[in-house]
Amino acid sequence: MKKTLIIIFSLSIILSPLHLSFSAVRLIKSPISDTVYFLDDNGVRHAFPNATTYQSWYGDDFSQIVTLSAETIASYPLGQNITLKPGKHLAKIQSAPEVYVIEPGGLLRHVTEGEILRTWYGDNWHSRLVDIPEVFFDNYLIGEEITRDFQIPNGVPYQITGDNKIYWKAKNIIRNISGQLNANGYSQSDVISSDRVYTERRRPTTGTLPEIAEPGAQAYIPTFDCEAHNLKAAFLFVTQNNARLTDINKITTLQSSISEAFNWATKDLATLDANYPLTNLKDDGYLLSPGQDNTTKISNEVIFTFFDKHPDVFDFLIIFTDFNVFDSNTTATYTPVSNQVQGLGKSRLKAQDVYGSIGKLKGIVTMGNINKYDMDNESDLAYTQNVLLHEMAHYQSGAATFELDNNPDRAELLREDKGHWSNFVSFVSPLGGLGYRDSGDGTFYPTILDLNNVHKRQFSDLDLYLMGLLPPQVIDPVFYIEPNSQATNNGNVYTPQNVNVISGTKHEVTIDQIISGSGVRRCVLE
Fold it and tell me: What does the alpha-carbon distance between residue 196 and residue 175 come to, in Å, rounded to a whole number?
């Protein structure tokens, strides 16, 4: 095989670097070496370590290889070797019996039972085996074992039993590639069938997709964290029409100011990096669908499409639109994606597969129509900042219960929706609370009235504890009021005319009671 490669490589065209485009030229070699490299989007070259690896990607097609001078080849930094194409082979090394499936990014997963491979590939599954030379074994990563046949690997053509469609499975999401198998380097014999159903992307494949047909995909290794001090957010602008410059300027005004606002709201205990460039996604028929009451729904395809081109390094995605997403009763929403912290009054969550994240993404804030927000003055900007801080705080705060009289689920610190702080608590927060102060005569004064700007609120110490920014030892007791007369405990109160001095009974709650009710706050990553 090596002779064939040398003969055909010698027929490739020699180009000067002036003609080279990373998007057009992927396969390069030097006239003085047999080694072929894949040139990635960053101008880094990656060697194919042997003919088997090259053929797993390109078969016997050598027509795309471009010969460059040795000096030009050397000018491109050398990266990691290319690994076998996912879904084309089963792998092993000669000195060990383990058989592996190959996932994107060179992730090897040991299949513990031959019967699993027989279920996927039939009795002739041994014909798919290739030996990885031990000198190249370090090019690969080792992932979790596969012990059941329903654990379908990523990076394979996939068919649901009884469904005629062929899908591409990646990040535990499937995408229709019917009719596109050959264009992406696969054949019918590579298809795994099962009755397991996965989240399906709305956007099908058309022709050859680089993320399938070319090397370079990252390994799908779920990576969760409990990061609290240094967070990162990306802003998306989803539009039905061409984005207007005035709308873009509004969003970037918020984007450029939210880091400072977050730092101030967390009392300099945390930072938010919001510097990633604004991403505009215009609907192409796959991003949106009709809603109720003249609203439009945003599909998960928005998030999938974002991650197709952008790194999965963000804790939050912030979405604005140029259309109505909500009815008049809703300003913005928070959609939780992952949470690995106990002791918050919230369940642990691993829903990353539904959104195409590896687990870094913690939540999605949908701010809705940009036209309902103004950024023209300090007060209007503070309002929008507070809405965003409010929604981001839902990640960890606003749901803690406390223990009283052997009942760990006391929720008097919360509103009826169990997701916001009660209006009748002694602290002010972007998540609610009017900050009542005991006047000593049976009445209580709402300190929110003393704020210079009612929309500009810092997180309370209790928020900061739940967010992982303060230890429990420094959290003073809080209290809630049981009003003597009926008063509203719903809605987010902003205007002073809706806030009054009230009379009632004061009930103190300590951090120890909150820990007894909600549990000890701790990060659980197993």
Answer: 14
